[in-house]
Amino acid sequence: MQSPSSSVQPVRDFIAYIRVEAGLSAATVEAYQRDIKDLEQDLHANGVGGIMDAGPADLADHLRRLHREKSLQPTSIARHLATIRVLYRFLHANRRLPADPARLLERPTRWRKLPGVLSPKQMKLLLEAPSSEHGQMWIRDRAMLELMYAAGLRASEVGAIRLNEYHDDLGLVTVTGKGQKQRLVPIGTPAQEWTSRYLQDLRPRLMRFNDGRDDHRLLLSFTGKPLERVAVWQIVRKYAAIVGMKDVHPHMLRHSFATHLVTGGADLRVVQELLGHADIGTTQVYTHVDRSQLREVVKTHHPRP
């Protein structure tokens, strides 16, 4: 059995690989690091020397404990599994391990859970929640919420948008997603109107506080600095609470964007492009439409309804 320290350098090499060569975003790299730390701590606690000593049964037991003892959601367990598979594939490919112990771990397709989605009525309530009663930043908050729903943005994506990536004349926004991949997403009139109002009425005032350290970001904090991912979470939760909704998070706006498009008849391939999904299988989760709509589609389009 190797000492725990024997895994330090291989893991460092792996992190360097996904950050530099694979070009994953900082948020994704941090998620990988957290998952690896959880794995190592769990292996040690259950008598396994470390990452370099784990076998297929040890890894499977780890995933089961995430479900039984930590009560993680299926999507979180799926992410842990993805981390484990990529880590051990790297270690094996680079001859750090003679075999890949994660090779036969089952893919979590049966764990997939329908994402939480707001109805169009709930979405309207959330978008219209910011008002002058909620402080001077309410215009920025309204613009942020409108952009997130209009373009299906992640929390990290909306905060990363730069001024030259917002194309008001074209009604488009350039979004930098996972792996630094960029996509052009059209936005509707409400998002344009509120973003323009923010740029005209509020952003110039915020610029006075930051001495030019805004990094040319579109959305700024009260101190004039770029809006961080944590702040986006806080803003979404704040206005959800104001309108009486619980357990609402930024990704729910993205889920709602995709679901409402698919429900409205949008082609799944188009939604895939808008979301920036590399695999159409990831987008297919949004095909969950209610039975009444399915019946209506058959009634409208089938030759013998």
Key features?
single chain; 305 residues; mainly alpha; DNA polymerase, domain 1; hpI Integrase, Chain A; 2 domains; 3-stranded antiparallel sheet; 14 helices
Would you mind describing this structure in some detail?
By secondary structure, the protein is mainly alpha-helical. The chain has helices at 8-21, 26-45, 56-68, 74-93, 120-127, 138-151, 155-160, 189-201, 203-207, 229-242, 250-263, 268-275, 280-283, 291-301, and strands at 166-167, 172-176, 182-186. The protein folds into two domains: 4-111, Tyrosine recombinase, N-terminal domain (DNA polymerase, domain 1, Orthogonal Bundle); 120-293, Orthogonal Bundle (hpI Integrase, Chain A). The longest helix has 20 residues, at 26-45.
Task: Spell out the blueprint of helices and strands.
Blueprint: H1 8-21, H2 26-45, H3 56-68, H4 74-93, H5 120-127, H6 138-151, H7 155-160, E1 166-167, E2 172-176, E3 182-186, H8 189-201, H9 203-207, H10 229-242, H11 250-263, H12 268-275, H13 280-283, H14 291-301
Antiparallel strand pairs: 1-2, 2-3
Helix pairs in contact: 1-2, 2-4, 3-4, 6-8, 6-11
- Total helical segments: 14
What is Rg?
22 Å
Largest sheet: spatial strand order = 1-2-3
Low-confidence stretches: none
Helix content: 40-55%
